[in-house]
Amino acid sequence: MTLMKEKIEELGKRRAHLELGGGPERIDAQHQKGKLTARERLDRLLDPGTFVELGLFAKHRCTQLGMDKKELPADGVATGYGEVNGRTVFVYSQDFTVMGGSVGPVHQKKMAETAALARQAGVPLIGLYDSAGARLQEGSENITFARLFYQNAMSSGHIPQIAAIMGPSAGGSVYSPALMDFIIMVKDTSFMFITGPAAIKAVTREETTSQSLGGSSVHCQKSGVADLEAECDERCIERVKALLSYLPSNCFEKPPRVSPQDDPLRLCPKLEEIVPAERRKVYDVHLVIDDIVDKGSFFEIKPDFARNLVTGFARMDGQVIGIIANQPRFLGGAIDVNASDKGARFIQILDAYNIPIVTLMDTPAFLPGLGQEHGGIIRHGAKMLYAYSEATVPTVTIILRKAYGGGWSAMAPKELGIDLVFAWPTAECASMGPEGAAEVIWAKEIASAPDPQEARKAFIEEYERNFANPYLAAALRVVDDIIHPAETRRRIVQALRMLENKERPRLNRRHGIMPV
User: Model's pTM, two decimal places?
Assistant: First the structure.
């Protein structure tokens, strides 16, 4: 055997050894938990044969507490780049079989360098998280994850960043996913928290478990930290791929467009049946969305959090759009603290990645109550106003029914720089609902009337005739046109075609300051 062949054979053996991670026993333990290994996840995520690994031979530098005798293949994280459906992406995948995927300085540096390379290349970054947290043996050298946080922050709004939580993510390391655009969690096997159950019990005497503290149901339904929940690793990876298909590679490109399989200008006669004209009757806005977008294209974001507001991606005429819609099935479509945060963040994501915004308005206004006021509905609600005002992408609003008071202001009215606003004939554009308005305007007349109930009814009807309709708003040019509901899809598609080359330069300033 020649020296060259010997060297090549040695390289092959070294690579094969390192790619085994923690070895067969720990790989088997990972499988018994219902989890894929770090490299199996990459195999499912990336197109076959496209993964180019960087940093396979990386080693930790710790010599204390017995670490000098431990070999940690690839330092517990596989990093590099490959392709997803033909598109280049950078990836890192933490390897729980190697010392629990714990993060040391070299491990973190590999992830940070991957994020930096993704930004330089102008392609998405996908992080697959499965780590017990900081590697305590590496002491003060490992006190902060700031190197990675900095790269996540610098990439924000420049390239799409998707985090898949496929196991533990605890302590300071949770801030890396939190700085990314989207978080997908795996049910039952993943969790995220700053302080674990043991520490909480020691400090507060509260008893809890990892799942009840920071499992996928907690973050998808209560905290709003996560965007989507998946049943298993395989389904999680499918969701990452699906989400990526709606996003451009970077902020200077437009999202991938597909050939429409659905007539772009078709009418939607079912909408008349889906949305009742009576303001107190409830309907599911998902049915409206499904009817107007390209068939089967709606991909909802945060479906289980702040369910009174629906957000998600879809396609119309093959073009990616973002949808923000009030949901009358929950809180009557009123906007609360959580819905404000959900909507404002999604608007900013859409604007960052050149995705037109379609808003479906049907809201009685902001949710009243002590809890909301004390929870800061003023500053949270202002986020919606700010995000719409700052958006530079094409924007189209459809007023389905209620457009009252502060709700009108929050849900993309003309006055916030929205390009086109259309109203259905069922729209009610007013400062407040007729019932409440009658009580305020004609309070004395109602109280002194021989029959207060009849008087109240008469005043409500008067207010409805004069204000609870779209015609005054159209006369004042805050509504561009009043349209037949069946024409909704056609009007949106025509508007987006017209606005395709819209230019709205940002103001000459460093940046605005969003309410928090």
Answer: 0.94
